[in-house]
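Re: beginner question about structure tokens

> Can someone show what the tokenized structure looks like for a real chain? I only ever see the sequence side.

Sure, here's an example I had lying around. Input first:
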Amino acid sequence: MPTSQTLSANTLIAQNQHAPALINTIEMHKGFIDKLHQHHWHQLIFPIRGLIQTEADGYQFLVPHTTAIFIPAGVNHESIAITDTTFIGLYINPDYGRCYTRNAGQQLKQVSMTPFLKELILMIKQQSQLEPALSHDNTLRLLEVLYDQIHTSESFKFKLLIPEDRRIKVIFERLTAQPELDFTLSKWGGIVGASERTLSRIFAKEFNTSFALWRQHLRLIQSLSLLESELSIQSVAHQVGYQNDSSYIKAFKARFAMTPQQFRTRKHRIYIE
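And the corresponding structure tokens:
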């Protein structure tokens, strides 16, 4: 369980104050909340499995394996695992390098996790495991390249997925456990103790959309982790509540501007709006 991961990251930083960068691999079970915290170093967060939602600086970011978030030192942030998730935290010492100095206009940013960026982070990880005398200068050069990749990449943010209203949270929990459920909003109202009209008003207020579109969005998000498996596209479609794969593919492409198969190849960036 990752209940001590925040402490572990900050302890790791405290124990290696002169290192240019550190990497920590973190596992979070579905529903786990890594409560509001901050680090003295910059952080790059990206999942290698699963899906997380991170809130920072007044924004909510939904993070599949195709993206990463750069969080400047000192910025409070909180993350919740939408599914069972493994993600990597790359911590960058702001005392090193012309691009990473403290208070140098660093901005919270979500970026596309390209194959080059993944390879670059792997190289930084390998360097961080070597003796400081052998790796210091090489790591700094790699960090300069990393900075350029982060700050020349197009930035984007995602809609909030997790509701605040307790009644909608009940629906959310049921649908994340069983996305194939096809209850009407009226039936959900009977389950959570609210009228259909009240629930419609809450969906409009919290998500600026209807229940049907929110449920479709949730199903598509749920399908992202299933696409990591060996399941066929048809099986994924059925597991998240679509009657046939053609309807699922059409909805997926309309939402993410790519097909589920293209997402699997990881050759395209994904925009979740």
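Each token stands for a local structural state, so reading them left to right follows the chain. The beta strands are 21-28, 33-37, 42-49, 52-56, 59-63, 67-71, 77-81, 85-92, 109-112.
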